[in-house]
Amino acid sequence: MTRAHAGRLVALSLCTAALSSCSVPGSELGLTAGEPRAVVGAHSLHDDGASMTAEATGELTLSAGQCFELRGPNSRSALLIWPTEAHLLPDGWPGLQVDDEELRVGEQLSISGGYLQLSGADAEAVAQCQSTGEAFVVHDLSQHTKNSDPAQ
């Protein structure tokens, strides 16, 4: 077993043993415990210091590893990196609460922030997500269309 492989196993065991969230040394990203998972960054919603100005729209979905993604109109998915104040909804249809908004899988979102290519410790921190696309750092919720029936 190589040293890098052993390090990944230790990081993975730290993540799976954590009760509330996990992170990898050297990364500012963490995963909430349980499923679904939210990737949480070290930023706040409406972060005044943010210079990211990209906008994205699409459906809130889950990756193969049960992490929240945004599937755009072109069917490309982006792993969503939520602000520190994001919390998973405790029961019912999968979703999370951000800034007094309850967001559920299947709903349409318009968000602003920025695209990010993950590498090194950040990529390792979210490896459990099994995401195939790039990442999008969420800085603001522009619009959110609720489903009357989340099963739709």
Automatic annotation (TrEMBL):
PROSITE patterns: PROKAR_LIPOPROTEIN. This is Lipoprotein.
